[in-house]
TrEMBL record:
Domain Helix-turn-helix: 2-50
GO molecular function, one term: DNA binding
Family annotation (InterPro entries): HTH_17, SinI_DNA-bd, Tn1545/Tn916_Xis
Species of origin: Jeotgalibacillus soli
Top-level taxon of origin: Bacteria
The protein's name in its UniProt record: Helix-turn-helix domain-containing protein
């Protein structure tokens, strides 16, 4: 499925200017049809999965209790 720059910006929750700049820098693959740039939506699937996985790992890490160590002494 192909998206316009505007649709891609909405899909990624980024400003249109950022998407247009990334297309011009060739950091996002696109096709120019003579009128507008079209961007294949599938190229973002792996990235979005990795972002979600990283968020889950961070939440797990934040919720993990701090282990008590016998070597840690209370100086008070």
């Amino acid at each position: 499925m192909y998206l316009t720059i505007k649709e891609t910006a909405e899909y990624l929750s980024l400003p249109e200017s950022t998407i247009a700049q990334l297309v011009q820098q060739k950091r996002i693959r696109s096709v120019y049809d003579g009128e507008q740039y079209l961007i294949n939506k599938d190229q973002f699937n792996d990235h979005l999965k990795q972002v979600e996985k990283a968020k889950m790992q961070l939440e797990e890490w934040k919720n993990e209790p701090i282990p008590e160590s016998v070597e840690v002494k209370d100086e008070d």
